[in-house]
Amino acid sequence: MTRQAEVTAFYDPRTFSLQYVVADPDTRSCAIIDPVLDFDEKSGQTATGNADRILAFIAGQGYALQWILDTHPHADHFSAASYMKAKTGAPIAIGEKICEVQKLWNGFYNWPAAPKDGRQWDRLFADGESFRIGNLPARVMFSPGHTLASVTYVIGDAAFVHDTLFMPDSGTARADFPGGSASALWHSIQAILALPDETRLFTGHDYRPGGREVQWQSTVAAQKASNSHISVCRSEAEFIALREARDATLPMPRLILQALQINTNAGRLPEPEANGRRYLKIPLDLLKAPWGN
Ligand SMILES: N[C@@H](CCC(=O)N[C@@H](CS)C(=O)NCC(=O)O)C(=O)O
Ligand SMILES: [Fe+2]
């Protein structure tokens, strides 16, 4: 029988993000997945409320933190991976395609000298690579489409599918960021749906359609039966048409230009300038406004 992972979700209502602690009940080793570093774009203030709440939970449970994992370079919030590593000493990891995303965005920010080899992380996972959280087996599946570096972590009987599949009533994630691909997303979703039907799927966002209560957990069987984008598409071509039509209506995430410069650097804030203050850089006329759509 597949080993049961102990999963605790932490919802960030400001960015509609799900952050997870996944633990091995036998050894009480755990990993954090997709922690959020708080940022208010109107004031420019950063904060560690979400991250500290998760670290306090781990301490309270007596868990031993083994890994800090990101599923992808987030476009809508900052990753708290580096902050948490500094606090705990635990290693940080992401999929190895992050290097491609670094190349892309270092170009956009005109930072030719910035590292493009993922050295900011302790480990870059290859497709299919295995590791352990205590005695729980963990496996990395590349899941490109939403971003080209996206991965799914299959840990015991749970899969952390980030922004491939949302809850069944919310469908799938957008695939229109630089490096995104609706076709790749379709294939990534097929691979997730090929996991055993009872696999518990944990999503990366829940936008609470119609104002319903936040939800984050489904199963492969439930997604096959009723995912609002997947169950209505009989082919890859139909899915691409549906996805691209919807993406054409979506404004960019409000923090995309801020988030990518932090998240391609493992969630590290920019170095302070001579006056001791940190600054972000915003490329103009790189992305498209929703005007005219
Ligand atoms: N309103 C949010 C939107 C964020 C967004 O675009 N989220 C991505 C995941 S990172 C997505 O797939 N959204 C799907 C949708 O809005 O339908 C923001 O500005 O941050
Ligand atoms: Fe995302």
UniProtKB/TrEMBL annotation:
Origin: domain of life: Bacteria
Record domain Metallo-beta-lactamase: where: 16-205
Keyword field: Metal-binding
Pfam family, one: Lactamase_B
Protein name: MBL fold metallo-hydrolase
